[in-house]
Specification:
about 375 residues, alpha+beta, Butyryl-Coa Dehydrogenase, subunit A, domain 1, Butyryl-CoA Dehydrogenase, subunit A, domain 2, Butyryl-CoA Dehydrogenase, subunit A, domain 3, four-stranded mixed β-sheet, four-stranded antiparallel β-sheet, 12 helices, globular, binds flavin-adenine dinucleotide
Length: about 375
């Protein structure tokens, strides 16, 4: 058992932190308030930093990062701008999907995504996202094409993505009747409509409507009716990137709040000399560290190709919860300043609260953990 980062991982952490502090953090508020999309120059910095090539195949300039390495990147990005993590982790997923993509699709889309064109992943439907195996969006084979009809909702990067990876029913009921498709967003019949979300403003939520959207058969990712396996592979490890970015955001707020409280005088002494205040900071630090360890343990299991579903579920629900608890505590300890929009704590909390639902709500994860503990008596799947 070794809890230390390797020299290479320390270098990754330090270089991404340095980049994120200098290039991302100063703009965090702007993207939230303005509604602007990233400028070309801004995206180019993310591209040049290699953040969209972490796990691409070598021939597309992939950097061979392990899942733990990618987790470190997500945590560091989360410290500076939680919204950017989605861009980075989506690009990680393309690396996982690449080997199941038709070579022509690989050649066309991987360089585009690695160079900053956005992609969306669309599983959730209006009837519910937690039950991802029972979607109703349909794909029907018609000669050399597939024709898609249905609706996806709460999809990140609606309106700015150039391509969407979408799950659709190609077979019987349940998870074994699903396939996964690559659909360019300018395909006739595909419409994107944005709706306003409380946080993650840059990442633009909305709905995708598929009205007889026709795509070539080669646009299927992997094999027919095996789409759920793909979805679960991606969602499985992503359940650690999501909390790590929240933990990064909360850690940053905790550090800023600690510095503020050291200076703040409360009834003649520093706020941190009051035991009640210092212990609140200690509780937050303990909870964040415990959650961080869960995430990295699950990611290292993934790196070793070992089962990590229960561990990832523990990391997901606990990591997001303690990050949000920490952010709320930081807001409270900053007094009325914490409530003001000048400080970043409220934005971080708005951004991270959405992560309670994204990649599965807590009840789903408790169910996965319970199945691991109790066995099939709890859930027969
Ligand atoms: C910021 C953000 C970004 C997102 N980005 C994407 C994206 O890019 N692509 C995408 O496909 N989706 C995305 N989503 C949607 C997300 O995946 C869904 O919100 C999630 O899967 C839950 O689905 P739902 O919201 O429809 O809730 P439902 O499935 O309707 O569940 C509602 C509530 O019921 C309870 N519940 C659900 N299942 C169970 C259960 N098994 N046992 C007990 N209680 C249960 C939970 O409290 C849950 O919150 C995003 C969501 C957010 C908030």
């Amino acid at each position: 058992m070794n809890f230390s980062l390797t020299d290479n991982q320390i270098m990754i952490r330090d270089s991404v932190r340095d980049f994120a502090e200098k290039e991302l953090l100063p703009h965090y508020k702007h993207w939230d308030r303005s509604g602007d999309w990233l400028t070309k120059d801004y995206m180019q910095k993310i591209v040049d930093m290699g953040l969209l090539r972490l796990r691409l195949p070598e021939k597309f300039g992939g950097q061979g990062y392990s899942f733990v390495d990618c987790g470190i990147v997500c945590e560091e990005i989360g410290r500076a701008d939680h919204q950017i993590r989605y861009i980075v982790s989506n690009a990680i997923h393309i690396g996982e999907m690449a080997h199941a993509m038709h070579p022509d699709l690989q050649d066309e889309w991987i360089p585009r995504i690695a160079n900053g064109e956005m992609m969306s992943l669309a599983f959730t439907e209006p009837r519910g996202g937690a039950d991802a195996g029972n979607i109703v969006t349909k794909a029907v084979r018609d000669g050399d094409d597939w024709v898609l009809n249905g609706e996806k909702t709460s999809i990140t990067f609606t309106g700015v993505s150039k391509v969407v990876f979408v799950s659709a029913r190609t077979g019987g009921p349940g998870p074994r009747g699903l396939s996964f498709f690559l659909v360019p967003t300018d395909t006739p019949g595909l419409k994107m409509v944005n709706f306003e979300r409380m946080g993650q403003k840059l990442d633009r939520g909305g709905s995708f409507f598929f009205d007889n959207v026709r795509i070539p058969a080669r646009n299927m990712i992997g094999k027919e009716n095996e789409g759920f396996i793909w979805a679960m592979t991606i969602i499985g490890y992503n359940r650690n990137f999501v909390p790590l970015a929240c933990i990064g955001a909360a850690q940053k707020s905790l550090e800023e709040t600690t510095e503020y409280l050291k200076q703040r005088k409360i009834m003649g002494k520093s706020a941190t000399q009051w035991q009640g205040v210092a212990q609140e900071l200690a509780i937050c630090a303990t909870q964040l560290e415990s959650a961080r360890m869960l995430c990295y343990k699950a990611l290292s299991l993934k790196d070793m190709d070992m089962r990590h579903d229960a561990e990832s579920s523990m990391a997901k629900w606990w990591g997001v919860k303690v990050a949000n608890d920490t952010l709320a505590t930081c807001m409270r300890l900053n007094g009325h300043y914490g409530w003001a929009k000048d400080l970043p704590h409220e934005q971080r909390l708005r951004d991270c609260l959405g992560m309670e639902s994204a990649d599965g709500p807590r009840e789903v994860h408790l169910g996965i953990i319970a199945r691991d503990i109790v066995g099939k008596q709890f859930a027969p799947f």
